[in-house]
Design brief:
The chain has helices spanning about 35-45, 60-75, 120, 145-160, 175-185, 195-205, 210-215, 260-270, 275-290, 305-310, and strands at about 5-10, 10-20, 30-35, 50-55, 60, 85, 90-95, 105, 130-135, 160-165, 190-195, 225, 235, 240-245. With about 325 residues, it is of the alpha/beta class. The chain has a single domain (about 5-10, about 35-80, about 115-310), classed as UDP-N-acetylmuramoyl-L-alanine:D-glutamate ligase (3-Layer(aba) Sandwich), CATH 3.40.1190.20. It is globular and about 50 Å long.
Length: about 325
């Protein structure tokens, strides 16, 4: 295989408030980073030593240059990323108010990655990758919705494992039932899914994450990995009891990006052939590191940093 990971979906410039603990009315400056769940994962897996490619779309604007230049510096393969004329590269503005407030605003009207097409997917190395990573936000608008389903179908036909991050962003959807319907359709082609309790409930259309998880497992996925933040993670399978995976306690600066760091570490472990519980422990370590940092893609840990983080806590490497 040419690539270990092909991530598909949104990308953005992320403007993070430079001042910590301030409401946006008191913010005077922002730091510019790169973001978007699959984009973060492409960087996170690359920093761990995997061969990563990204299929997103950027606008014919300088913000698109900002995103692609950063990715090229990170040695993520960008050759499959189209420029969409008349579209704008997505943006996010975030304020950081620890320990539990991180308000963010998406700017995605007329954004480029919503304009991904089936033809863009056909040019991407779906069949030349060891795993394909998709997210729920890619289903929110056409033509990217059809492109996402095309990628899933191509991966399934090629025998390539498909990992789906549920990635529910309510303000990107016309309704919660619309999201649930599209996500359930996507999971019928997936190998595994990753999400928080809130995301699992939303994807299943249930008010209860436990019942929701059981319903999603009926789609045929091998496993559902529940991200539980400070409580670690849980690996759920249809015919087995839940397997809890211990967290790494840490003082939180910013939770945004932690889930994408988790996914990066989890994919690393999965592609090493580790048991899913061990892969989730790797994900926990990566997520714990990123919550101590200011941003997302720019702050993903290297394999050496993860090893040092774990060793400093008196444990063998994962």
């Amino acid at each position: 295989m040419t690539y270990d990971v092909l991530a598909i979906g949104r990308s953005s410039i992320d403007l993070y408030a430079h001042e910590i603990g301030c409401p946006i009315t008191d913010v005077r400056s922002f730091d510019a980073y790169v973001g978007g769940c699959p984009t973060n994962v492409s960087v996170g897996t690359r920093r761990l030593g995997l061969r990563s490619a990204l299929l997103t779309a950027v606008g014919d604007d300088e913000v698109g240059d900002f995103v692609t230049t950063f990715l090229e510096r990170e040695r993520v393969d960008t050759q499959f990323i189209p420029r969409k004329r008349g579209r704008r590269t997505s943006a996010v503005i975030l304020t950081i108010q620890p320990p539990d407030r991180f308000p963010l605003t998406f700017y995605r009207d007329n954004c480029a990655d919503r304009a991904l097409t089936i033809d863009d997917v056909a040019r991407a190395p779906v069949g030349d990758s060891r795993v394909v990573f998709l997210t729920g936000t890619g289903l929110s608008h056409e033509p990217a919705r059809d492109a996402t389903f095309a990628a899933a179908a191509t991966a399934r036909a090629a025998g390539v494992p498909l990992v789906v991050d549920i990635d529910y962003r309510a303000d990107q959807w016309e309704s919660a039932p619309a999201f649930a319907g599209q996500m359930q359709r996507l999971l019928r082609s997936a190998t595994m899914a990753v999400g928080t309790e809130e995301e699992i409930a939303a994807a299943s259309g249930s008010s209860d994450a436990g019942r929701g998880a059981a319903a999603l497992l009926e789609s045929g996925i091998d496993a559902l990995v529940l991200k539980r933040g400070a409580r670690g993670a849980t690996v759920l399978r249809a015919q087995s009891p839940p397997a809890d995976v211990a967290p790494f306690p840490i003082e939180v600066l910013n939770v945004l990006g932690a889930g994408d760091a988790f996914a990066s570490g989890f994919l690393y472990g999965y592609l090493q052939g580790w048991p899913l519980e061990r892969a989730a422990r790797m994900g926990n370590a990566c997520g714990a590191i990123v919550v101590t940092r200011h941003g997302c893609a720019n702050f993903m840990p290297t394999l050496e940093e993860v090893a040092a983080f774990v060793a400093a806590r008196g444990e063998p490497f994962i």
